[in-house]
């Protein structure tokens, strides 16, 4: 039994069983990667970030809007303006959607019909596009499910319809990435298989490498997805891809080392298990320090708060697993198969001595300064012109997606920032339904609209994005001045009338009338007296005539009597007439007396009225002058800035239109509101973060010293999310590079036991990376017209180039450390020896990233180009810079000012330039200036 166990251990069967158990558990427990990308692929923002705070406000909004997000249903007529028939069709579609709102989780529908004040924001100026805003609950289903249902529901005959929102576009980006992730994985593995087959002209060796990559990758991917699924660990939408990049490249390189050494030992007649043990013994330290460097460098990224960067920390675990698999899993098959591992080619390939690194190193040793200047001349401009202009829009790679097309329609007809509005939440401890609060909110709205980069702002006082004229003092003053104009005119008429009345009611005229009445009264009195006397005389004559008529009988008497009778009759008639006249005169006299009395009273009254009219006219004149001054003041005030201020009367606040605006823009407690800010540019613009910072400062300054000072100001929306990511990323990326490259350089110094030489090599790598980055930018700009990289490109490219640096520099460092010869004697042979595998490493690196091109993604294409160019530039400049700086580090300290022109110093310089001398002669030559041990030091 012990013998069997020993045999199993000797054949490394236990290691195989262990990896089989690991990969089986990884496959069984592996969650759905597409689901993880959909839900956890986007960057996780900190709880202190503004978008997260805004989400907390939104989740307690009330009005049945808790936990909702806004979706835009876009109706577009590509042929021009929407016709009345098409508008009616849109209304019918919205009505049907309203009926099924509970099924789709729609809590609120906002249209230009039910919210007329928001019409400018919902109906394009060219009248070709109408937007219907839907508040959809997060609990109703996934974004992808809701989008599919709404897309079919809003379909309207004759119109192009889209369902879009920043959340939907982000989900579409994740869906697109997940769609090509599997293809990239399969193609990368296939190319790795072919590359190993080409290198070893074998079928079995590539299969073993393929299994090693697959087992390491599945184990790491399962661990990463389970951490994200169960413990909410950081996860990126590119996690499956960058894990594959790092693990496949490192496995390919270590497998190449292993199989090449194994082939040499087996072909020399060594038994397979013994040869495998020998290879592990020879390469174990090299693989160990490479694994340790990569594990520590990438594992340190778990210390960062930014989730996308922290997700790359899983590579540290991946490299640890890969390193263990390289020295435990591959030897299992190598020990069992032996020479069969390299079937069908049975003879060892004849290795040629490649002279590229040898020639480049000789050039560096020949004239170090010239070599350095040549490299700096060729590479320096690209590295110096390095630019870090990144694009934070993940939708640029998405082809033919309805949400992206809908966003583009909104940008075309409403402005670039319409599809991705910015929302400013204002939360205070006072109600916002009064003039004082609304006045400050309106001032804030106008202030924000005036900022550079802002296209429009909507708020509770300006729901349509434009001021409502009747809510402002200028309009109200205009009405008041118009009324004042009328009043002043009327006062002028009254003044003229009063002047006319005063002129017409003269007291002298009244006195003349009274005098005439007095004369009439005197005359009538005299007439009455005369009439009375005459009546008495007539009566006496009548009585006499009656008496004399009885005693005379003569004709004369008779005639006289007849005449008297006639006179008597006439007198009787005159008496009657006089009596009537007397009566009338008496009445007239009484009336005249009364008229005289009344006219006297009237004259006195007219005198008082005239005095009063004069006083009134003076007061009207004074009032008219005051109103003229008031009119001039109000007219000036109307044209001033002060008249542009909001003033809402209690009647206006309680009106139906404004109450609807309060409902739309404030929470249930009317203590929180939001302002929707549409930027002039989409959030992928590089000045988004700067614009957001400026807006936050402006809003804070605007409310400072007002009744709303101290209110909570929080930004939400895609621009805020993009700005938060941009700020965190730009803040952390230099620290990431410094930490990872610092750890790599530190370990390189420790392994090589040289500070200066390791630093020179690493600076060469950094310059090569910077130059390749800039070259890729120029190539991408030439190929696509847009040279800005997606913000994930530096991190993704960071993985393969770091693997390249660690693998090649570790090999160079070990060669330097394990050599006992002086530095000058080691430079040429040591660099030449490392360069013998340069072409293979270069081939592996290039082949390892070619699988990314199958995705047809600008992001992954840029990563591929950066990796390939870095590998080429680095492998061409490293031998030159290593030999040049290596030689200078020896000869410069050895030179003294007074000995600089000494003949023996020149001879020693020439001897130092001979790179192929033996160690013994080199040590002898170097003895006057430095000891062999000192030459290894910096």
Automatic annotation (TrEMBL):
Residues 66-368, 569-799 form the Membrane transport protein MMPL domain. It comes from the Bacteria. InterPro entries: MMPL_dom, Mycobact_MmpL. Its main location: membrane. It is a multi-pass membrane protein. Residues 912-926 have a biased composition (Basic and acidic residues). SUPFAM superfamilies: Multidrug efflux transporter AcrB transmembrane domain. Keywords: Cell membrane, Membrane, Transmembrane, Transmembrane helix. Residues 899-938 are annotated as: Disordered. It is found in: Cell membrane. The chain crosses the membrane at residues 12-30, 180-200, 207-229, 241-262, 283-304, 316-343, 363-384, 733-751, 758-775, 795-816, 837-855, 861-882. Belongs to the resistance-nodulation-cell division (RND) (TC 2.A.6) family. MmpL subfamily. This is MMPL family transporter. It comes from Levilactobacillus lanxiensis. The lineage of its organism: Bacteria, Bacillati, Bacillota, Bacilli, Lactobacillales.
């Amino acid at each position: 039994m012990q013998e069997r166990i020993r045999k199993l251990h000797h054949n490394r069967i236990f290691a195989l069983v262990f990896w089989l158990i690991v990969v089986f558990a990884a496959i069984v427990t592996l969650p759905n990667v597409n689901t993880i990308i959909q839900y956890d692929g986007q960057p996780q923002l900190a709880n202190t970030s503004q978008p997260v705070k805004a989400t907390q406000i939104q989740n307690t909004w009330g009005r049945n809007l808790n936990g909702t997000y806004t979706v835009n249903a876009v109706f577009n007529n590509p042929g021009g303006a929407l016709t009345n028939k098409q508008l009616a069709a849109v209304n019918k579609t919205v009505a049907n959607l309203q009926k099924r709102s509970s099924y789709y989780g729609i809590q609120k529908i906002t249209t230009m019909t039910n919210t007329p004040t928001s019409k400018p924001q919902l109906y394009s100026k060219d009248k070709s596009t109408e937007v219907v805003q839907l508040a959809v609950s997060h609990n109703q289903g996934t974004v992808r499910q809701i989008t599919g249902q709404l897309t079919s529901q809003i379909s309207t005959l004759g119109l192009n319809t889209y369902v879009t929102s920043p959340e939907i576009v982000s989900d579409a980006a994740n869906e697109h990435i997940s769609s090509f992730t599997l293809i990239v994985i399969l193609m990368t593995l296939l190319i790795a298989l072919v590359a190993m087959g080409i290198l070893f002209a074998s079928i079995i060796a590539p299969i073993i490498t393929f299994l090693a990559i697959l087992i390491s990758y599945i184990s790491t991917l399962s661990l990463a997805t389970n951490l994200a699924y169960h413990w909410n660990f950081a996860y990126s939408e590119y996690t499956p891809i960058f894990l594959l990049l790092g693990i496949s490249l490192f496995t390919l390189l270590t497998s190449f080392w292993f199989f090449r050494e194994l082939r040499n030992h087996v072909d020399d007649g060594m038994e397979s298990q013994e040869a495998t043990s020998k290879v592990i013994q020879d390469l174990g330290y090299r693989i160990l320090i490479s694994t340790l460097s990569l594990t520590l460098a990438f594992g340190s990224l778990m210390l960062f708060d930014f989730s996308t960067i922290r997700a790359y920390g899983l590579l540290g675990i991946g490299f640890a697993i890969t390193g263990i698999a390289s020295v435990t899993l591959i030897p299992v098959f190598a020990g069992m198969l032996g020479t069969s591992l390299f079937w069908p080619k049975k003879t060892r390939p004849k290795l040629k001595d490649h002279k590229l690194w040898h020639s480049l190193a000789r050039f560096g040793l020949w004239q170090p300064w010239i070599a350095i200047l040549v490299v700096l001349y060729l590479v320096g401009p690209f590295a110096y012109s390095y630019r870090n202009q990144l694009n934070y829009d993940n939708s640029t790679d998405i082809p033919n997606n309805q949400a992206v097309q809908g966003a583009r329609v909104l940008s075309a007809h409403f402005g670039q920032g319409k599809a991705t509005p910015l929302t400013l939440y204002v939360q205070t401890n006072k109600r916002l339904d009064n003039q004082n609060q609304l006045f400050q909110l309106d001032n804030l709205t106008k202030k924000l609209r005036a900022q550079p980069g802002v296209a429009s702002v909507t708020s509770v006082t300006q729901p349509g994005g434009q001021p409502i004229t009747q809510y402002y003092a200028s309009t109200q003053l205009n009405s008041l001045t118009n009324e004042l104009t009328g009043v002043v005119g009327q006062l002028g008429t009254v003044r003229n009338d009063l002047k006319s009345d005063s002129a017409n009611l003269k007291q002298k005229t009244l006195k003349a009338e009274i005098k005439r009445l007095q004369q009439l009264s005197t005359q009538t009195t005299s007439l009455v007296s005369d009439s009375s006397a005459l009546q008495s005389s007539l009566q006496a004559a009548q009585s006499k005539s009656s008496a004399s008529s009885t005693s005379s009988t003569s004709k004369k008497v008779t005639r006289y009597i007849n005449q008297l009778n006639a006179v008597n009759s006439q007198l009787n008639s005159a008496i009657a007439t006089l009596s009537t006249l007397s009566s009338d005169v008496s009445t007239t006299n009484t009336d005249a007396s009364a008229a005289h009395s009344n006219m006297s009273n009237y004259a006195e009254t007219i005198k008082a009225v005239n005095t009063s009219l004069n006083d009134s006219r003076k007061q009207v004149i004074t009032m008219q002058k005051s109103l003229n001054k008031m009119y001039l003041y109000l007219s000036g005030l109307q044209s001033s800035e002060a008249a542009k201020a909001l003033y809402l009367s209690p009647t206006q606040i309680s009106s139906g239109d404004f109450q609807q605006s309060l409902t739309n823009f404030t929470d249930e407690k009317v203590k929180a509101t939001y302002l929707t800010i549409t930027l002039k540019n989409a959030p992928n613009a590089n000045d988004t973060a700067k614009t957001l910072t400026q807006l936050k400062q402006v809003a804070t300054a605007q409310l400072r010293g007002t009744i709303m000072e101290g209110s909570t100001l929080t930004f939400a929306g895609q621009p805020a999310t993009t700005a938060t990511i941009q700020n965190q990323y730009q803040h952390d990326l230099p620290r990431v590079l410094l930490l990872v490259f610092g750890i790599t350089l530190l370990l390189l110094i420790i392994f090589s036991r040289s500070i200066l030489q390791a630093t020179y090599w690493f600076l060469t790598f950094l310059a090569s990376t910077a130059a390749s980055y800039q070259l890729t930018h120029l190539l991408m700009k030439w190929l696509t017209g847009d040279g800005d990289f997606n913000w994930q490109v530096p991190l993704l490219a960071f993985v393969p180039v770091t693997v390249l640096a660690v693998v090649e520099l570790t090999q160079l460092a070990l060669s330097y450390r394990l050599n006992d010869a002086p530095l000058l004697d080691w430079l040429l042979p040591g660099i030449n020896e490392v360069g013998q595998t340069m072409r293979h490493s270069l081939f592996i690196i290039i082949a390892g990233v070619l699988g990314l091109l199958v995705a047809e993604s600008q992001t992954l294409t840029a990563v591929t180009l950066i990796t390939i160019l870095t590998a080429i530039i680095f492998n061409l400049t490293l031998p030159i810079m290593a030999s040049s700086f290596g030689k200078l580090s020896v000869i410069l300290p050895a030179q003294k000012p007074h000995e600089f022109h000494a003949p023996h110093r020149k001879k020693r310089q020439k001897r130092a330039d001979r790179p192929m001398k033996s160690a013994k002669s080199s040590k002898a030559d170097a003895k006057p200036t430095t000891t062999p041990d000192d030459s290894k030091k910096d």
